[in-house]
Write a structure and sequence with these properties.
With about 325 residues, the protein is of the alpha+beta class. It is built from three helices and 18 strands. This is Glycoprotein VI platelet.
Length: about 325
Amino acid sequence: MSASLSALFCLGLCLGQVTHAQTGALPKPSLQALPSSLVPLGKLVTVRCQGPPDVDLYRLEELRSGKYFDQAVLSIPVMEQRFAGRYRCSYQNGTLWSPASNTLELVATGVFNKPSLSAQPSTAVSPGEDVTLRCQSQYGFDQFALYKEGDSGPSKTPERWYRADFPITTVTAAHSGTYRCYSFSSGLPYLWSAPSDPLELVVTGTSVTTTRLPPEPPSTVKEFSEFRGRWNHLLVNKGSSTEPPRNVTVLPKESDPPPGLALQSYTEGNLVRICLGAVILIFLVGLLAEAWHSRKKPLVHRVRAVHRPLPPLPQTQKSCQDRGLPIGHNRG
């Protein structure tokens, strides 16, 4: 009899361990608001619960009212104040429920007029200095939030009425960007004001790499003449440089090229000089021939160069995009 009781006890213990393992095997779902959890009044927002594949049932809860929806997606075509609040979700597989997701705070913005945002002492700050961003409202709010574009969440602070200071100590290049602030009341934590005008914080003294463009080639006859004169002067200076005596041995420096490369470079330089001289000679012969021909046969007509007008700019076509709103789900 005691052996049977021991067997039943072991069986119950094993079943309890299996059930506990199955319960812990379900991962926690994620809950997010698209495009953002800060939703202006009248705009579209979608609340989505995401779990593993092959989920039997999703449950989306609104904690303030206690209502729930047996669906994974809640679409709100027009944001209203009554939709603002805290949400969470879970899912069911078989007889097991998953742990609840992290709480999502859905905030309605634009309920009150926007505050003002300023930087003290200035919006341009050197690295290592301190700056304070001040959010100020005309109403007696006791809560303020500061957002930076690109960050996932706000910086909230309960400050004295009408304004809040957000100090940034030891500024670095990562602090540069666009900031906005909101004001609201602790009695209505999910009904916020409209965002303030954007404030651009610039961290000065950062190194900027500049690329030097190569000089443009000569485009007129005058520039070509000046370019040719400077080139000839350079060739004359190179040609007039005295070579070292043959009985003196010149050792190359460490940075000098090997003798073979130096000889090749010298040969290429001579070829360039010869080609340039041939081009100049042909140019001078052409000028002399033209002058001799003009003496024998005087010009009858002189044709001036005619500047052709530029073609008209292409006509751009304006396009517009239709905007649509997704269809919301019915609540369960």
